[in-house]
Amino acid sequence: MRKILYSFALSFFLSSISFAQFGQNKVNYKELEWQYIQTKHFDIYFSQGGEKIAEFTASASEDALAQIQKDINYQINNRISLIVYNSHNDFQETNVTDEYTGQGTGGFTEPFKNRVVFPFEGSYEKFRHVIAHELVHAVMRDMYYGGTVQNIISRGITLQLPLWFWEGSAEYLSQGWETKSDMFIRNAVISENLPDINYLDGYLAYRGGQALFRFIAETYGRQKIGELMNKIQNLSSLEPALKAAIGIGLEDLNERWKKNLKKKYWPDVATLKDPDELSKRLTDNKKVGGFYNTSPALSPQGDKIAFISDRDIYLDVYIMDSQNGNVMKRIVESGKTQDFEELTVLHPSLSWAPDNKRLALSSKAGGFDVITIIDSETEKSYELPFQLPGIESVNWSRDGNKLVFSAQNSIQSDLYIYNFTTQQLTNITNDIYSDSEPVWTPDGRRIIFSSDRGSNLTQTIPTIDFMMYNHNYEQLDLYSIDIESKKVDRITDWDLSSEKYAAVSADGKEILFVSDRNGINNIYRKKIKTSEQEPVKSSLDYKAVALTNSQSDLGQLSLSYDGKKLVFTALYNLGYNIFLVNNPFEMKSDVDSLKLTDFMLELVKSRKKEE
Q1: What would the pLDDT profile of 381-394 be if each residue is shown by its tens digit?
Q2: For 600, which of 166, 230, 290, 519 could close a Cys bridge (C-beta 3.0–4.6 Å)?
């Protein structure tokens, strides 16, 4: 593919619409110089340092477009502009839209010129998904509206489609079906919280809409999705298009879809455990409001839990009593003070110091991510002396002298160690792979983390010959790294699943972790290699044991120093809540091995056919 490179100052003319929530234009902390490359169908704009992600975007976008056009049976008429930001902080400064692009916004397709805008956030799998998702929107807008708002006005187009149609089709056509959506819909069906099609809104528009398009594909054939979309173009309305494409209208489709989901998931009630049956629930989003109670950090003594919640609309940090779940105080109010612009909620981003008083947390400030140290008793705080494009998953060493965290630049995400004594910041996994969710072993000699590096245990610096697009970045496994020798030991290698959220026992010989090996994120226990004198070659030689048989998505583990208390999050009644287990290393599942979900069985059969 021939690439043509230009430099220019990128600026966009926006309408002067003001949004009452903010009342002024966005603050811009950086002045970016832009370049672009061209592929057959795309103009890909990127700023300095974004050359590698632009190349990745070129391959991912052309492959995604080919599949989308095949599925929809439509060829785009116009070139599409893709605007790629090096980080979510840079993305938040975009002037392509006046709307606020918070942490939960992974990208958008603006309607005026059908431009696709998205950031790189360290994970190539997430990056690929966002590219494909937004391209579905761009192709559909080209199909229905000629690509731009100007065409809508000039042609008098009045077609309106519900949010679940836009987002559900984009999710299904960009990634098919996967365990995350399977877990969410299972929870919604079993808890009887899945609304009818017409009421699929917010996050349910994505997951519920995706499930609906999966039902259409599996029941009537995948080609019916393209046929439906073309019927909509011809008939200018969803209801008659449904009847023309699959023979039924929305009301009958809703009844058949929900009946199918009940047949699929209700049998799980008899065999799988609800989180309340496995542990003690400490939060209830239904009662206090909000959707998120996440990033739980159990204090070293196990008496307190710091966590992030949106119960008061904004994402704030609270401290609760670990025994009864009573909230003791709120120590951070993000979005309402100048000290904390925004907290990260999608990754564990809180960690206690050994003194059981101070907390480290990652947040956004001035166009970058920072780590703030806050005293939970006095609420006095200060920022550590560095800023990075993105910071996640902070963890404090037990000697109190170091912090480890994952951070990203415009190419990769790595593990960094900050030394309080020397005030030095060190990148210890400086390679192309995505590394996340680090946790110290008690002796402070090693770090357990999650990564997409596969069997590559040595650092791989990006070269002109290495393309991340050709690497299998879809699967996450657990690894440990010796902070002195930088030697990496692989801990898990299960096919078709991802392992994450490690928590280390008090003696450093075992870990608890989360895996979707059976199709649902459950908690497992495994012994790990602790020295070169052990008779095993690597931690892979030790067997993992399932401790839970959950019907809900479990994650974000946090242990007390003595290993006698564990807290974690679980999807419960369409909200994320925090749960507590005493003596977690003594937990036992009621089955010898976890039964594969129907979806995971399909994945296994599909893989065997490929082999």
Answers
A1: 999 999 999 998 99
A2: 519
The pLDDT of 556-570, averaged and rounded, is 97
Angle at 409 between CA 408 and CA 410, to 5 degrees: 130
In this prediction, residue 377 carries a pLDDT of 94
**Please, are residues 84 and 44 in contact by the beta-carbon 8 Å criterion?**
yes
Phi, psi at 315, each rounded to 5°: -85, 110
Q: How many CB atoms lie within 10 A of CB 195?
A: 15
Q: How far apart are CA 76 and CA 135, in angstroms?
A: 11
Report, in angstroms and rounded to the nearest whole number, the Rg of the chain calculated over CA atoms.
Answer: 24
Residue 376 amino acid letter: S
DSSP string, 224-289: HHHHHHHHHHHHSSHHHHHHHHHS--HHHHHHHHHHHHHHHHTTHHHHSB-HHHHSEE---HHHH-
Number of H helices, E strands in the chain: 14, 31
Give Cα separations from 539 to 530, 534, 556 (angstroms).
9, 10, 22
Contact 268, 551 (CB under 8 A): yes
CB 582 within 8 A of CB 568: no
Burial classification of residue 51, based on how many CB atoms lie within 10 Å of its CB (0-12 exposed, 13-18 middle, 19 or more buried): middle
The DSSP symbol for 519 reads: S
DSSP 8-class letter at 380: -
CA–CA separation, 403 vs 405, rounded Å? 7
The pTM assigned to this predicted structure is: 0.91
Distances (CA, A) of 100 to 94, 345, 397, 399, 486: 9, 17, 36, 40, 41
How far apart are alpha carbons 174 and 171 in whole angstroms?
Answer: 5
Segment 267-293, tens digit of pLDDT: 999 999 999 999 999 999 888 888 899
What's the pLDDT tens digit per position in 10-39? Answer: 222 222 222 223 233 556 667 888 999 999
Other CB atoms closer than 10 Å to residue 593's CB: what's the count? 11
**Quick one: pLDDT at residue 212?**
98
Q: What letter does residue 11 receive in the DSSP assignment?
A: -
Q: Poorest-confidence range of 177-181, 240-244, 552-556, 592-596?
A: 592-596
- Report the sign of the C-alpha dihedral through residues 286, 288, 292, 298, in that order: negative
